[in-house]
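RECORD TYPE: inverse folding
INPUT: structure tokens
STRUCTURE:
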């Protein structure tokens, strides 16, 4: 099962022990080197609104409407998880990042990413800008193709662009519509692809 990164934003986090809603997901904390979601950052709470986090290992389930954890004790202040501090304060900018190949070719922009229930990022959904997205649609970029994650950019291995399959674009819809029209037109009595139409019977 793969989870869409957008799905978790603003989703409530609920304790299975007492059913209490502990907060809502503000952001996903990603380790760019491991290409994995390592924690969920929750909305601030209290007067000073100190950042609270839930280590991803503490997540019991990600459902249609809520994230569940065993108990409220899994929610901690950021200061209690020093290993997460740099990842929260200088987050990896995956969504909106430009995807560039080793050959220096711009392939698209990350719209969202898909990750496993263990937190490992599996694919990135990329678009090619407004016009290219309209024509070509979107493509799934395998995480295995990623070489480096930087600030605002993702570098992928050579030849990755040639291996991407773009789907959902207007151009593909038009081609499919034209194909169906020709298939209908070439039916009994319809015009043929090659040669003149059948002669009329006397």
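DESIGNED SEQUENCE:
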């Amino acid at each position: 099962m793969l989870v869409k990164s957008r799905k978790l934003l603003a989703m409530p986090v609920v304790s299975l022990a007492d059913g209490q809603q502990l907060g809502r997901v503000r952001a996903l904390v990603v380790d760019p080197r491991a290409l994995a979601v390592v924690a969920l950052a929750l909305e601030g709470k209290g007067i000073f609104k100190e950042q609270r986090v839930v280590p991803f290992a503490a997540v019991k389930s990600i459902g249609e409407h809520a994230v569940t954890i065993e108990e409220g004790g899994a929610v901690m202040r950021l200061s209690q998880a020093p290993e997460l501090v740099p990842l929260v304060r200088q987050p990896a900018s995956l969504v909106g990042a430009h995807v560039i190949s080793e050959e220096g070719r711009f392939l698209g922009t990350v719209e969202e990413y898909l990750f496993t229930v263990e937190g490992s990022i599996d694919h990135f959904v990329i678009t090619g800008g407004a016009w290219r997205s309209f024509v070509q649609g979107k493509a799934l970029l395998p995480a295995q193709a990623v070489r480096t994650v930087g600030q605002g950019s993702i570098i992928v291995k050579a030849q990755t662009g040639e291996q991407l399959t773009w789907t959902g674009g207007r151009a593909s819809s038009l081609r499919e519509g034209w194909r169906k029209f020709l298939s209908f037109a070439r039916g009994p009595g319809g015009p043929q692809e090659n040669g003149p139409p059948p002669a009329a019977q006397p």
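NOTES: Helices lie at 5-8, 85-89, 130-136, 160-163, 170-185.
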